[in-house]
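Format notes (please read before filing issues)

Several people have asked whether sequences and structure tokens are stored in separate files. They are not. Every record keeps both together, in the order shown below: the sequence lines, then the token lines. Line labels are part of the format and must not be stripped during preprocessing.
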Amino acid sequence: MEGETHIFWRAGRLALLTGAAMSLAACVTIDAFEPGANAAIDPSSPAAAAVAAAVADPGARPTFASIPEIPTDVRPASAWRQAVEDQEADRLFTQRNGAEDSWSLAGTEAFAADLRARIAEIDVHAPTDAEMAESDAYARALRARATPPPLPR
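Then the structure lines:
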């Protein structure tokens, strides 16, 4: 049993080393696949000297340490969404309020006459002294008949 697991560990190490070697070989040959890496510089170009200097000294490569921190003074996506929704609501409000009016003041006399006729049917009037006295007597009678709640124990 011990010998069988030992073979698997050796095969695993061999696969790991092979993968690492292939990755390293791929990193070395990346420059060969870059388009225009070996292109000739046109000497009649006004930028030929600058291009030759840039090819000779490409500059420092960026590192993960050069990635800037996440800014704290920028509003989150939810705040952007809310601002867009608010702006859309303002746009719709402005469109509705700025649209042509759908009503007019024509036919006001007919409307007023109809309303006066409906009010006359109801017979609305200010209460007379007799009606106010009747209401007061009714309220006094109700108060006299009312029984107060029992006292708390």
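For reference, the curators noted about this record: The mean pLDDT is 84. The two ends are 90 Å apart (CA to CA).
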